[in-house]
Design a protein that fits this description.
With about 425 residues, the protein is an all-alpha fold. It is about 60% helix and about 0% strand. Strands 1-2 form a two-stranded antiparallel sheet. Helix 4 packs antiparallel against helix 5, helix 5 crosses helix 7 and helix 7 packs parallel to helix 9. The termini are far apart. The relative contact order is 0.06.
């Protein structure tokens, strides 16, 4: 389950300048290789030694702690992971980054429930780069009560919620005012030069410039703030007042020349880095283009192979179809030639039979006629034997009898 948040995007919760510098920093881009929650925790353990938002001294840009904090913002931690951060035994900076995550991203109404178990935590560590030690309980109370965190602005806690936090602290008999462990409770805006040099440097990163090294800026650094001022003699006059104005001007000129030379060197280094980055980017693009060309050539070869296979398949199919058709034609030709031969043979036979048939017909016709005559004789008797019994008038003559028999037996019998 994810942590209940205020619902605002992180670029609205962090100061705009800080957010822009985190996103444009080289270290944050290197954090893309960290994919898991445990890998980020190991990076905090190995790299973080303070939890200020900006690098201190003459360094520029956001601190390591806030780059890793922004990495956690992109991962959207769960409740279980947050409890693991707040109770981590290895490093107090891991716990401090967990409390910062809640102070920026969590719903203000839920802050007291998260922070209450750690209000009296006595683990000691140094939140800032100045080396000032504090307990985790005091640090947590300053996160709840303060509106500013080392000259950066926290998201505003609603007044009713803040009153309830103060009342709860008073019930526990704990201080209800900001102790100053996380910086001043108000931003020092009387003089813009009084800002820490890291903030001025970070403001200039977006414009590709180097922060000016002014004396007032260097003196306002939290590290140099603890150092004693330049030496004074017993009479109360400083060393600079005894120097001539010309020497003071030459010294300031030397300082400005040194600053300009440092600035030029820094610009040259940045140009060299940009040139190297562009060269590496171009080489990477050339490699990608070459890989794309190789892939396209492989695809063309595969397409040519497929086309060749299709052509071979078509040729094989056409050959088989033609061979089938030719075999069918040959079969039909052979069948028709057989039929024509059989018809010619049958015609020749019929003709030979017709030429031979008259003699056979005569012989065949004689046999049935004789048999018919015998049958008639059996029925009607022999006319020649009946001549004596009857008179010549009553019985027809032989010739007439013969004609009668011929009429009955057929035209060919006599």
């Amino acid at each position: 389950m994810e942590i209940q948040t205020s619902g605002k995007p992180i670029d609205q919760l962090l100061e705009r300048v800080l957010c822009m510098n985190i996103l444009s920093s080289d270290y944050f881009k290197e954090l893309y290789r960290l994919k898991t929650y445990h890998e980020v925790i190991d990076e905090i353990y190995n790299q973080v030694d303070h939890v200020e938002p900006w690098m201190t001294g003459n360094c520029r840009g956001p601190s390591t702690a806030f780059c890793l904090l922004y990495k956690f913002f992109t991962m959207k931690l769960t409740v279980k992971q947050m409890h693991g951060l707040l109770k981590h035994p290895d490093s107090p900076y891991i716990r401090a980054i967990g409390f910062l995550y809640l102070r920026y991203a969590a719903d203000p109404k839920t802050l007291w429930n998260w922070f209450e178990p750690y209000i009296k935590d006595d683990e000691e560590f140094s939140p800032g780069s100045s080396g000032r030690m504090s307990t985790m309980g005091v640090y947590v109370r300053d996160l709840l009560l303060g509106q500013y965190y080392f000259d950066t602005l926290f998201p505003r806690i609603p007044v009713p919620v803040l009153r309830q936090v103060v009342a709860n602290l008073e019930k526990m008999k704990l201080p209800s005012k900001h102790s100053g462990v996380t910086g001043d409770s108000t931003r020092g805006s009387d003089d813009t030069a009084r800002r820490p040099p890291s903030v001025k440097a970070a403001l200039s990163v977006s414009f590709g410039q180097r922060a000016p090294h002014r004396a007032s800026t260097r003196d306002s650094s939290p590290i140099r703030r603890t150092l004693p001022p330049p030496g004074y003699d017993r009479n109360g006059e400083d060393d600079y007042s005894r120097k001539s104005p010309s020497r003071h001007r030459s010294q300031s000129r030397d300082l400005s020349d040194r600053d300009y030379s440092d600035r030029d060197r820094g610009r040259d280094r940045e140009r060299d880095r940009d040139r190297d980055r562009n060269r590496n980017r171009d080489q990477g693009r050339d490699r990608d283009r070459e890989r794309d060309r190789d892939r396209e050539r492989e695809r063309e070869r595969d397409r040519d192979r497929d086309r060749e296979r299709e052509r071979d398949r078509d040729r094989r199919y056409d050959y088989e179809r033609r061979s089938r058709e030719s075999s069918r034609r040959d079969y039909y030709r052979e069948g028709s030639s057989r039929r024509s031969r059989s018809r010619s043979r049958s015609r020749s036979r019929s003709r030979s039979i017709q030429t031979r048939s008259p003699h056979k017909d005569n012989s065949k016709e004689k046999a049935p006629v004789s048999s018919n005559l015998a049958k008639l004789r059996d029925l009607y008797g022999d006319l020649s034997s009946q001549k004596g019994d009857g008179g010549k008038d009553m019985v027809p003559s032989r010739d007439s009898g013969a004609e009668e028999v011929i009429r009955l037996g057929g035209s060919t019998w006599k």
